[in-house]
Design a protein that fits this description.
about 260 residues; alpha/beta; Rossmann fold; 2 domains; four-stranded mixed β-sheet; two-stranded parallel ribbon; 6 strands; about 35% helix
Length: about 260
């Protein structure tokens, strides 16, 4: 491992101090229903604290929940649409969002308050997709995991039980023979994320294929840290970078501004 990669793995001092004072249950030993209920309650409390005070007025956007039939089930698709008082026929850029949870956790409520905020702040229509849990469907789709502090066992549990072919590019986009033609892409990669190197490699492959990319890396913190440790400095930077990355995409993803 290069010295640079080793530095990414050194725990952030603020995160390390908070982690030392935090007791977390071993996720793989909890009943899945208990785990989901606890996760949803925890996320709801965290997001209310972070985004509740910043929520825009309900007069500035509308919410539309749609139940969409899919194979063997229905999924919720929540649309958040800005309200333009000056031009009722105005259309907005589309922001497509799938929540995290490793195929086992999360709902459209998970990021709802954040998405309401950016819907109005950036005047974008948000389409928030709620996927089926892996226990309800085996697929080859790679689903983002928002469980923090993952160890190898819980990571494998999230991904290996999908039932798909690990060599199918639909399971890992890294395996596609070509990445030419993909849109400009913004990456946020955490230094202690077990999938860190996959994220860094994917960014490199896109860049080598001529795709404009923007990359921000957060040394010494794990996947999902910004939600579970929102008061550390890197969490504030993560949120600020997210907004800058979104502005970069909305403004045309200029290559000369990618590292600004």
């Amino acid at each position: 491992m290069s010295e640079e990669r080793q530095n990414l793995s050194q725990p952030d001092p603020e995160y390390a101090a908070l982690l030392a004072s935090t007791t977390l249950p071993p996720l793989q030993k909890l009943d899945i229903k208990v785990l989901r209920e606890g996760f949803d309650k925890s996320i709801a409390a965290i997001t209310r604290e972070i985004y509740g005070p910043r929520l825009p007025s309900e007069s500035e956007y509308r919410v539309e929940d749609h139940m969409v039939p899919v194979e063997g089930a229905q999924i919720t698709v929540r649309c958040l649409v800005p309200i333009s008082k000056a031009d009722k026929a105005r259309t907005f850029p589309l922001f497509y969002w799938i929540h995290g949870g490793g195929g086992r956790l999360g709902t459209v409520e998970m990021d709802d308050l954040l998405l309401r905020t950016i819907c109005v702040e950036f005047q974008i229509t948000v389409v928030n997709i709620e996927y089926r849990y892996k226990s309800e469907l085996r697929s080859v789709e790679e689903l983002a995991t928002s469980t923090p502090l993952l160890n190898k066992e819980s990571l494998y549990e999230c991904y290996n039980d999908q039932g798909g072919d690990p060599f199918n590019p639909e399971s890992s986009p890294l395996l596609y023979p070509s990445h030419i033609g993909l849109p400009p892409t913004y990456f946020q990669v955490c230094g202690l994320d077990l999938l860190r190197d996959e994220g860094l490699l994917y960014e490199r492959l896109l860049r080598e294929a001529g795709i404009t990319t923007k990359l921000d890396v957060y040394p010494g913190v794990p996947h999902g840290f910004h939600m579970f440790f929102p008061k550390i400095k890197q969490a504030a930077k993560y949120e600020e970078d997210f907004r800058k990355g979104l502005v970069w995409l909305l403004n045309g993803a200029r290559e000369d501004e990618a590292n600004a």
